[in-house]
Amino acid sequence: MIGMSKLEPVSFLQGAALEERFNALNSFLIQHQPLWRPKPFIQLTLPWEQTYQALSAWLRARSLDEAEAAHNSPHTLQAPLPFSGWAEESRQLCAIGELPRQHSEAPNAWSVDVPGRKWEQVEAFTQHALFRHPPSHWLDWCSGKGHLGRRLSLSGTAFDCLEYDPSLVDAGRCISKRLGLSAHHYEQDVMDESVLNRLETSHTPVALHACGDLHVRLMQVASAARCSALAIAPCCYNRISGEQYRPLSTDAKGSTLLLSKEDLGLPLCETVTAGARVRRQRDISMARRLGFDLLQREIREIDEYLPTPPLPTSWLQRTFRDYCLELATLKKLPPVPEQDWKALEAAGWMRLATVRNLELVRGLFRRPLELWLLLDRALYLQEQGYQVKLGRFCDYDLTPRNLMLLAEKP
Ligand SMILES: C[S@@+](CC[C@H](N)C(=O)[O-])C[C@H]1O[C@@H](n2cnc3c(N)ncnc32)[C@H](O)[C@@H]1O
């Protein structure tokens, strides 16, 4: 356990604290792999349930609504031991403070083209992207329409945008022109070699929610181009080209914690920003899949999960019977005998409640894994000669991907 009392103000991480926290999280994640690796969606019972029977029974007795209510804050669940011990350790290991902030405001005209939540994220990112030496030229990496670059350049600093979707590049150009800004919006695949021609030592690259490989690429090319500073708020850690996570820092390379692409999805399992309709649809889809799973185990006479492909939402309009029969055909299963479809559908919903409640244990490891991944990035940047700060740039409710890395050459 790292030395942190509840009374100490929580700070952002920098210097030796980065490695110290990485090592603590690394041990925690390795020790508790049996709790976060097995997926209740895939296994009818989890190996840990045998060891912690009271906890298992308590979770299994809860409703779907109860699971939903605790989903985003599993730490607060009053579950039987040893849940609270794991929760407390996870909470302490993930305590991280806000980065230094400088309040500033953009004129209303700058936000008219930006969805409300996105604008708030851009504002928050801008107010925390503070360096000892004020940047002379921002480079918005995977910029979309370039809202971040524009906002950062409010005080007159030059900015360029790199984005590979031509429609976003065009839209970004139009907005910049309307606001009288002489920015370059380049149509550029950042994974292509040619991106090196877009990057200069004098640039300060920034990336708000550039996915997996895209922000890793930025760290690599920005260090190679000797950029003196950069700021990144990563997201979608599982959007990588390989099947296995490739650690970046020496510490992570030396760890026995090996992560698959699927493992990298764990930190992204929140539902903070999903609306009620989307959540309802997701529930129906999952309950049906779980009902079908019970059926396929019986028909195949193999008590094992059978992966099924993503299905169009129109499949949810079908009766549950038609859904199962067509999915069985799609998976080339033996003929399906008539069933009590109502009972099977109800069993799917019951399993969904069980899955969601058992998932609360995995939920305790979402943020630790995310922080581990961020610290791997922080340590990598340190190795490249940067002084690094890692902290929050906005509230979790605005976006669960609310952590930011600031790197600056000493
Ligand atoms: C999650 S969005 C973030 C956009 C912007 N930073 C923002 O916060 O609004 C990721 C962006 O990366 C762009 N993108 C994806 N792959 C890319 C690539 N290989 N090269 C350049 N841009 C890419 C997408 O088109 C998208 O606009």
UniProtKB/TrEMBL annotation:
<keyword id="KW-0489">Methyltransferase</keyword>
<protein>
    <submittedName>
        <fullName>SAM-dependent methyltransferase</fullName>
    </submittedName>
</protein>
<dbReference type="InterPro" id="IPR029063">
    <property type="entry name" value="SAM-dependent_MTases_sf"/>
</dbReference>
<dbReference type="InterPro" id="IPR025714">
    <property type="entry name" value="Methyltranfer_dom"/>
</dbReference>
<keyword id="KW-0808">Transferase</keyword>
<dbReference type="Pfam" id="PF13679">
    <property type="entry name" value="Methyltransf_32"/>
</dbReference>
<dbReference type="GO" id="GO:0032259">
    <property type="term" value="P:methylation"/>
</dbReference>
<dbReference type="GO" id="GO:0008168">
    <property type="term" value="F:methyltransferase activity"/>
</dbReference>
<feature type="domain" description="Methyltransferase">
    <location>
        <begin position="121"/>
        <end position="241"/>
    </location>
</feature>
